[in-house]
Fold this sequence. Notes:
The complex is a heterodimer. Chain A is mainly alpha-helical.
Amino acid sequence: xxxxxxxxxxxxxxxxxxxxxxxxxxxxxxxxxxxxxxxxxxxxxxx
Amino acid sequence: xxxxxxxxxxxxxxxxxxxxxxxxxxxxxxxxxxxxxxxxxxxxxxxxxxxxxxxxxxxxxxxxxxxxxxxxxxxxxxxxxxxxxxxxxxxxxxxxxxxxxxxxxxxxxxxxxxxxxxxxxxxxxxxxxxxxxxxxxxxxxxxxxxxxxxxxxxxxxxxxxxxxxxxxxxxxxxxxxxxxxxxxxxxxxxxxxxxxxxxxxxxxxxxxxxxxxxxxxxxxxxxxxxxxxxxxxxxxxxxxxxxxxxxxxxxxxxxxxxxxxxxxxxxxxxxxxxxxxxxxxxxxxxxxxxxxxxxxxxxxxxxxxxxxxxxxx
Lengths: 47, 313
């Protein structure tokens, strides 16, 4: 088993902030894809 | 002492901005613009949603290719001042993350393009990604000083994709648009390479001014600019039904390409006096080359839409 990694509080906070930012960005991208594919489907149906 | 695994685990994860930076957003603006112009200038009608999806796929595909380029060239980028601060050489991201991100963007863009605009567009997009990431980055760039000439083809695909999204097939006009950007790339890039001191030589990349020398580069800038002038006028000979442009494009192309050639002549036959030379003609040619491409493609769009809008007024 690997040793526990020393990480001070500020680094831990920074890590949490970065991961939260990535999660938000990924969420927005996925939401955008859902809207895009819905819109493409509607456009194709009307074609 | 920590093991490499522990060091990697202790490093902060890459920020979303680093992933965004991998897509080379500045290069993307030109790709989006030319793709949009191809789409707007093509004869026919496209559903705005499909049009938007097409442009988005072109942009995302270009971003994926850029990420794959940086994944492959991480070691080279680390050796050059201009690129050393990119996410990979700066150590803010693991190489595999860039590779996976690039592959995901490329795959997603091609698939979405196929579903939205058709599989011919998807095929051209896939071809452009492979062309940039594989043919240019992996094969040509480290091997030949003509890398930028052939590699320029990668940036020439977007207007063709935009055009084909509307018409559904490849005709002479999108091929000519491809060739115009293809022929424009060498003088544009080499003008920059003449006045920006890069360290390509240090990392073993055979860029033209380094390998063939300044004089040969200048002559080749002139040669490509000479070819560019008649090439931009060739669309005028195409029938209107195939998207052949009219006088707005014709006058604009004639004026812009003549100015481009005049600036290229100044650069092509100039002898630099000393190392303190300010390289003003080279800087002017580079600045104009950017304006030139934007103006030429804007004129192509104006040529199609001014009569239509005029008809409504």
